[in-house]
């Protein structure tokens, strides 16, 4: 039986286009080396984890800011908001350590090591071939070569993050395992492992700049490593605020 309305069916042109695109994608995948495929996979998963950590940090900070702006609304459900804030801080501590630790089997430090072992895929000639750029293209003119020194400088940048020892101490002695000293003296934990808002900002900046440096060198793509729905909680509290006024 024919279907004159065409609902639920693809016309022959669409089928041919889909088949052609599939062939092109398959050919492209076949042309890529194992190192290129691994880089793309690593970048994608690292990007996801970076956005996850950014979401935790930005929401954690926004909830603290809303305490002064919408406190009366938040105390409608104080247990909920206090648990959320506490849980966010716990996961921030664990995720920062996972992302930046030299011992982590995957993360920003290990990503740099991978790039160091496969610097050939980050060469300008590979970018030109990969994106089919014409000679003189602005992405080629502005290309910053990834050298051994580039990678070492980025590793030094991570090592110089003043907050990392605090995150590691908190993770090792309290959030992943209970150390008897800090278990009974929470004030000492804050004194021995201080953290500031600027530390969280520096973590986000470092993470985004390092990932994008190597992403741009590989295929010219740059990623915004921030959540798009960070203000959802604010919308909820604004609704409660308006409801209380009526």
- Number of helix segments? 13
Helix content: over 70%
Shape by Cα distribution: globular
Rg = 24 Å
Low-confidence stretches: 1-9, 23-27
Distance between the termini: 60 Å
Which sheet architecture does the biggest sheet show?
A: none
Strand percentage: under 5%
Helix and strand sequence: HHHHHHHHHHHHH
Query: How many separate domains?
Result: 1
What average pLDDT do the residues reach?
A: 87
Give me the count of strands. 0
Class by SSE composition: mainly alpha
Name its key features:
disordered N terminus; 246 residues; mainly alpha
Task: Report on this structure.
The protein is 72% helix and 0% strand. The protein is globular, with a radius of gyration of 24 Å. α2 (34-69) packs antiparallel against α5 (108-117) and α4 crosses α9 (164-175). It is mostly helical. The longest helix has 36 residues, at 34-69. The chain has helices spanning 12-31, 34-69, 71-74, 78-100, 108-117, 124-131, 138-141, 148-159, 164-175, 180-183, 186-192, 197-219, 232-245. The chain has one domain (35-220, 228-245). It starts with 11 loop residues before the first helix and ends with a helix. It is built from 13 helices and no strands.
């Amino acid at each position: 039986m024919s279907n004159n309305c065409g609902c639920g069916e693809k016309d022959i042109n669409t089928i041919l286009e889909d088949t052609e695109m599939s062939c092109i994608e398959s050919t492209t995948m076949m042309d890529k080396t194992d190192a290129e495929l691994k880089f793309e996979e690593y970048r994608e998963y690292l990007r996801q984890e970076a956005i996850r950590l950014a979401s935790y940090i930005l929401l954690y900070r926004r909830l603290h800011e809303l305490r002064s702006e919408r406190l009366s609304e938040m105390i409608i459900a104080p247990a909920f908001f206090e648990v959320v804030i506490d849980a966010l801080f716990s996961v921030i501590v664990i995720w920062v350590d996972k992302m930046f630790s030299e011992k982590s089997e995957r993360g920003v430090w290990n990503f740099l090591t991978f790039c160091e072992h496969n610097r050939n895929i980050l060469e300008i000639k590979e970018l030109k071939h990969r994106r089919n750029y014409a000679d003189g293209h602005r992405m080629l003119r502005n290309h910053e070569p990834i050298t051994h020194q580039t990678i070492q400088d980025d590793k030094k940048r991570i090592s110089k993050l003043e907050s990392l020892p605090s995150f590691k101490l908190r993770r090792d002695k309290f959030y992943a395992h209970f150390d008897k000293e800090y278990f009974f003296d929470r004030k000492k934990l804050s004194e021995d492992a201080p953290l500031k808002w600027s530390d969280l900002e520096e973590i986000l900046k470092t993470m985004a700049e390092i990932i994008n440096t190597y992403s741009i060198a590989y295929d010219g793509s740059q990623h915004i490593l921030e959540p798009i729905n960070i203000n959802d909680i604010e919308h909820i509290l604004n609704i409660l605020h308006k409801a209380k006024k009526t």
